Amino acid sequence: MVDSLKKPGFEEIRPGVKVPAKETILTPRFYTTDFDAMAEMDISANEDELKAILEEFRADYNRHHFVRDEEFEQSWDHIDGETRRLFIEFLERSCTAEFSGFLLYKELSRKLKDKSPVLAECFNLMSRDEARHAGFLNKAMSDFNLQLDLGFLTKSRKYTFFKPKFIFYATYLSEKIGYWRYITIYRHLEAHPENRVYPIFRFFENWCQDENRHGDFFDAIMRAQPQMLNDWKARLWCRFFLLSVFATMYLNDVQRAGFYATLGLDAREYDKYVIDKTNETSARVFPIVLDVNNPEFYDRLEVCVRNNEKLTEIASSNTPKAVQFLQKLPYYVSNGWQFLKLYLMKPITVAHTQGAPQ
Question: Model pTM?
Answer without folding.
Answer: 0.91
